[in-house]
Structure formats: structure tokens, C-alpha cells
UniProtKB/TrEMBL annotation:
The keyword Transit peptide does not apply. It comes from Nocardia camponoti. Pfam families: Acetyltransf_1 (PF00583). This is Ribosomal-protein-alanine acetyltransferase. Residues 5-155 form the N-acetyltransferase domain.
Amino acid sequence: MSGRYSIAPMTPADIDRCVELEHLLFPEDDPWQAVSFHSELAAAHNRYLTARDESGAMVGYAGIALLGDAEHPEAEVHTIGVDPLAHRGGIGTLLLEALLAAAAERGGPVFLEVRTDNQPAIGLYAKHGFHIIGLRKNYYHPSGADAYTMRRPELTIAADEWAARARTDEVLS
């Protein structure tokens, strides 16, 4: 797939497509069901987004939890999923940058977990300032796959500047 993509807040109408993508992307690791997405959307501290192609078809989704308080904010990326037919088109980068912009508004570090065998995602996160800080054995169920915990320190440059810098590098998604 090629072309331009738009990022917008996820709505309940998007959930069926998210569930479809979950089953394509994570068949070995208990893909989220509709009830999980409804719960995530209902939580005031969460921000969930969708990516759509020029035809309006949803090709990706992502979510982040904005945690802590004003004095000690932090965020946790919950998920990023991109339609396998649209991989390597920059959609994952766009979604991650949108999540990081939401986190930058509050400040604080951003955390996430990623499968240790998902090299494209690890590369994308590293390009955006994340570092491996730990290993979670048997994190994903039922497959038993391990996960790295990654952390990006508090952003010290404006979110727009960070996104512009990231786009000058090779796009990974």
C-alpha cells in the first residue's frame, strides 16, 4: 500500500476492524476481543487512534495510557497494530509519533513492552528514543514469548520537532 494516511481518534465503530486486525497480527497471543477495546476506549486516561488510507479504510490502530499525576507523569504504549498488507508503509511510525505527541503534552517517560523477536518494532522504537531496560520472560500468553520492556526518557524537545527529526530517518513500521 502507498499513499497518504490520516490519524484520528478511535471510536466504537472502529472496534470490529481492530478485532479483525488483532486476530491477523497476534493469533498466538490471545488477541484482544471487542470487550477489551470498549474498556480501553472508556478509560479517561487512555488515547486510542486509528490510521486510515486515502479510501478511508482503517489500516492501523494504536493506544497509550497517560498515567501518573501532574508532578510525576508517565505513559505506557498499550498497542500498535498495522494491517499486514500495509506493513513497511510508515503507518506504524505515524501512529507512534501521534502517541508520543500525546505523551509529550504531559511530559514524563514512556514505557512499552515488545516481543523480543519483533525486530522491526524494536528498531522503530529505538529510532524514537526507546531503550531496552528489562526482559519479561514468558510475557505473552499463551505462546510464552518473551518481551523487552523499553523506556523513552522524558522528551526534551518539542513533539513537532521530534516528529520532524524522525521522518528524516529511514521509515520503519
